Amino acid sequence: MPPRKIIIDTDPGQDDAVAILLALASPELDLLGITCVAGNVPLDLTTKNARIICELAGRPETRVFAGCDKPMARKLVTAEHVHGKTGLDGVTLPDPTMALQDQHAVDFLIETLRREPPGSVTICPIGPLTNIATALDRAPDIAPRIREIVLMGGAYFEVGNITPAAEFNIYVDPEAAKLVFGAGIPLVAMPLDVTHKALTTRARVEAFRALPGRVGPAVASWTDFFERFDKEKYGSEGAPLHDPCTVAYLLQPDLFSGRHINVEIETGSDLTLGMTVADWWRVTGRAPNATFIGDVNAEGFFALLVERLGRL
To answer: What b-and-e string marks burial along 237-269, b requiring 16 or more CB atoms within 10 Å of the CB?
Structure first.
């Protein structure tokens, strides 16, 4: 079977970095490009970080594109309080030497989806959905050509991590999220409900650190940095590796379980802005539009990460 063609849309972020590394280490996936968006940190840093990650993996030929530098209708909210001032605080890595592509990320998305056979490209957004929504808004014809969108975003039982009601990626650009969830594209969402079950532990971090080469120790250093925030906030043993859940789902979907339900995005309320209103109990009668993941085999997930990252 030929590799599955994917595009990762991202705002790196330490956990974004692990997702990208997992994709680059997996021959089952053909990473057509990385599209960057403003989110965890501003766009100039997300594009820099994506290239640092590719060079760390020994994959400087990977194409990286700069996309939207602010949400569709709101001021940008960032998360340096979690990820540090660079977005990749932790291990110190050299500035990238590989070039940023000249083409805008949105144009790359539209052009690629029009060029590739219908139903052959999966989009993996692991940041705010601004690039994806902008592409769909400009070129509605690409929607039926997308095989699937597998995204990290939202929450239901875990409620919010940036406000009491909202998860960060959805909150940063709720208008974009509303457009994407309403586009009629097969969609899998990895909300906090599942990512908060994919927690680093000391043993799991040390397994990364023990890997040969540079990648494992870098991942251990990143998790050492950002888990301090979640340990203090939630009182948990470690920190959730949110974004790699999307790539792991493409590789081993049987690690995850969820429900195909209706998910709506709140855009009109100051109190619950960006909330993913997930009809988990199917009480509304609204048509399902997303597979909302609720559980993960955490041991299998981390075993996959260690095995794959050890290849780089």
So the answer is: ebbbbbbbbbbbbbbeeebbebeebbbbbbbee
